[in-house]
Amino acid sequence: MKRRTLLQAATAVALPVQRTHAESGFPSKTLRYIVPVAVGGGSDLVGRTVTERWGRVLKQVFVVENIGGGGGVLACQAVTRAPADGYTLMQGYVATHGTSPATRILPYDAVKDFTPVGMIGGTPNVLVVNSSLSVKTLKEFLDYIRKNPGRLSYGSAGQGSLTHLTMELFKQQVGSFMIHIPYRGIAPAFSDLIGGQTQAMFPGLAAAMPHIRSGRVRPLAITGQSRHPLLKDVPTLDESGFKGFDAQQWYGVVGPAGLPVDVVKTLSDTLMATLQAADMADKLSIEAIEPRPMSPEAFGKFIKADIARWTQLVKDRNIQLEG
């Protein structure tokens, strides 16, 4: 009898310890969603669009917090310091978990310090030229570069940005030279492209579309494995002979390292359900983003691969960053 009583007591003590987050009703309170840019703009719109609908699926409210500065460094540090309970998440994107880790020494490890939850989606980059340039196709542009070595310049949103590295990848595969002019953001880079101070650029599609529609820049090719619905007549680089060429402005969700497995599953399953909703593709199309649901495991592998390929490019091109 004593032995049976002791076993029952031990079981009674053990059961509460073994209770999972799912059993305790996660999430049971408001969630914090950090967007690593200032209010306004594409990244902020993506975060607010997704969390507004994601919150409905989770039956909880997301509070979006914008932490700009340092190219996402401040936001990433805030997340790494947060409790690993699933109530603080961040919209990781190609800068925080792709190009910056490949080009800079950061106060965080983009892989070890975070738990991947899932991909949201991505938008391709598009090769555009000043509309006054006498080229209409990618082939004509390549011929023009080769006939005018060192006379063309291209702009970017900054040293080490995706717009910079994508063009460097293009130059590497073409084997030609163009002068890089880095700017403090994509807006001034477009101003000089339109004004003729630079001749080409590789911006994200969302940023490029207003200028393409106005006719001030001309699209020649787009990244990705298939043509984009917004530019059905513009070929991909892959179909144009640049096999495997890809670069995209992507967005995903990460949390602090060590999130419980059951919490990650709840977040991942509900994020996927949110992205697969009938109207989500239309909502994200405002920023030319195509939903790309991805499991935490697949997203984690994607992040590692993205960092690895940009790191290799920086090494191969001997890209030296300022500051």
Strands, count: 11
Adjacency order of strands in the biggest sheet = 2-1-3-10-4-11
The CATH superfamily name of the largest domain is Bordetella uptake gene, domain 1
Class by helix and strand content?
A: alpha/beta
Task: Give the overall silhouette.
Answer: globular
CATH fold category name of the largest domain? D-Maltodextrin-Binding Protein, domain 2
Strand content: 15-25%
Q: How is this structure best described in words?
A:
It is built from 11 helices and 11 strands. It has 323 residues and is an alpha/beta fold. It folds into 2 domains: 8-123 and 249-317, D-Maltodextrin-Binding Protein, domain 2 (3-Layer(aba) Sandwich), CATH 3.40.190; 126-231, 3-Layer(aba) Sandwich (D-Maltodextrin-Binding Protein, domain 2), CATH 3.40.190. It has a 6-stranded mixed β-sheet. The protein has a 3-stranded antiparallel β-sheet with strand order 8-5-9. Helix 2 (42-58) crosses helix 9, helix 4 packs parallel to helix 11 (296-317) and helix 6 (162-174) crosses helix 11 (296-317).
Topology record:
Blueprint: H1 2-18, E1 31-35, H2 42-58, E2 62-66, H3 73-81, E3 88-93, H4 95-103, E4 114-124, E5 126-130, H5 138-147, E6 153-156, H6 162-174, E7 179-182, H7 186-195, E8 200-201, H8 205-214, E9 217-222, E10 248-256, H9 261-275, H10 280-284, E11 290-291, H11 296-317
Parallel strand pairs: 1-2, 1-3, 6-7
Antiparallel strand pairs: 3-10, 4-10, 4-11, 5-8, 5-9
Tags for this entry?
single chain, 323 residues, alpha/beta, D-Maltodextrin-Binding Protein, domain 2, 2 domains, six-stranded mixed beta sheet, three-stranded antiparallel beta sheet, 11 helices, 18% strand, globular
